[in-house]
Amino acid sequence: MGVVVNQTIKNVIVTCLGFGIGAINTLFLFTNFMQEEYYGLIMFLLSTASLVWPLMAFGVHNTLVKFFSSYTDTQQQDRFLTLVLFLPIGMALFLGVFGTLFYKSILEFLSKKNTIVAPYVWAIFVLAFAMSYFEVFFAWSKVKLKSVFGNLMKELFLRVCTSILLLLLYYQVLSVRQFIYFMVGAYVVRMIIMKFYAFRLHPLKLRFRLPNNYKVVLQYSLLILIAGSVATLLLDLDKTMIGYYLPIENVAKYGMCGFIASVIIIPSRAMHQITYPLTAKLINEKSMDQLHVLYKKSSINLLITSGLLFVLILCNVNQLFEIIPDQYELLIWIIILIGSAKLFDNTLGNTNSILFCSDYYRLVLFIGIGIAVLAFVLNTIFITTYGITGAGIATFLTIVCYNIIKLFIVYTKFRIHPFSPKTWLGLLIVLIFVFGFYFWDLPFYPLVNIAIKSILIGICYTAVLYVLKVSEDVNVLIKNFIQKIWVK
């Protein structure tokens, strides 16, 4: 776990900085510098592009991680890398032709409820292309166990660019239309920078011959294309469907509450960058004992770290909304539902990596199709019945069902699960802290209240974890931190 802990700490720092800047953008700059309908438009474009890019990438970002470490012959490896590099181009051309032929129908569908979308439908394709190739080059660096720079580009670069563009918008250097153009350009620039970094780590040697196992590679890519898209679909389908059924400013309200709840995924996003290629390596080497250890450790470590974020969010959210413009109302049930779903996600540890890197990934295909249909049906029913809150209910139910099925498959096929008595202890601690601090408010300015309350929660939570020895890895980190402070 040494390399995991080392790079995870770096990734957590980068991800926290990214989410911090993202919080400033989402909660303060967008809400004060841009009209509500244009804020909703930008969220709609990004969410829809996020639904398209996994299809355009053709699953090769997952394929690259799974198969790279299995090649011992450099020529075969170069053939494999050439194949995964050009597959998304072919898919992009296909989607481009399809989009051109049916442009009017797509335009009418996406702008049926909100005509403001119509002039910017083209941006969805460009954003999806840039997102897909960024993920390919990011995976290229992950297989070399170098995830920090890619994580910096993913979590920090775009948010800093967005902050700069919002400030330019505020000072009327840019119009809203120009803001959108430059935002799309930032995604393209990020892709190009990631390409140069990936090729520096492992130079590309083009070999236009298929690797010997190309049938297996293509089959995996085709299947994982659908299965791997489910996680993205669960993240963004709700916002896209809100934009279809409701006025587009509702996308901004829902997206803001969803962003607050999504802070909980910081630890998993950071750890996943390094546990994914490690899981692939352990499965390729058939090191099942080590895989089981990694499984349980990733689960408990993610549970207690994301649990702290869950407590901090719920216990401070009322104070936070006191300093946000009044038109953005607190949708507390959306935060609770999405936050709980993300907490459950984190408790599963590296379950997704085990499934995607094993021979049972085909099962995930059928699950993915079923979950996609379930998500669409639930969003249609609940959004039309309960409005914005209905989207939160649909997302929660879909994620819970998906995770239960994945747990069942891993247990039946590998006879391992991520849970232990420490799991239930960790969950109990989270619940006690939520109910213990949620109803306690200080009589100061909201930001001061949030700061004081967060520090108290953090100190008490860490102390309880340390005394009860919930996680060996966390206890080691706390001991090392105390020793460093003591020496100084």
Number of domains: 1
| Average pLDDT rating | 84
If helices are DSSP runs of H or I spanning 4 or more residues, what is the number of helices?
20
Helix content: over 70%
Q: If you compute it from the alpha carbons, what radius of gyration comes out, rounded to the nearest whole angstrom? A: 22 Å
Structural class category: mainly alpha
E-strand count: 0
Report the order of strands and helices.
HHHHHHHHHHHHHHHHHHHH
Proportion in β-strands: under 5%
Largest β sheet strand count, sense and barrel closure: none
Shape: globular
Distance between the termini: 27 Å
| Poorly predicted tracts of residues | none
Which tags fit this structure?
488 residues; mainly alpha; 82% helix
Q: What does this protein structure show overall?
A:
- This protein is mostly helical and 488 residues long.
- The protein has one domain (2-487).
- It is built from 20 helices and no strands.
- The two termini are 27 Å apart.
- The model has no long low-confidence stretch (mean pLDDT 84).
Which helices and strands, and how do they pair?
Elements: H1 2-33, H2 36-57, H3 60-68, H4 74-101, H5 103-110, H6 121-142, H7 148-170, H8 176-201, H9 214-227, H10 229-245, H11 249-262, H12 266-284, H13 288-320, H14 332-347, H15 351-357, H16 361-386, H17 388-414, H18 421-437, H19 446-468, H20 472-487
Helix pairs in contact: 1-7, 1-12, 2-6, 2-10, 2-11, 3-4, 3-6, 3-9, 4-6, 6-8, 7-8, 9-16, 10-11, 10-16, 10-17, 11-14, 12-13, 13-14, 13-18, 13-19, 14-17, 15-17, 16-17, 18-19
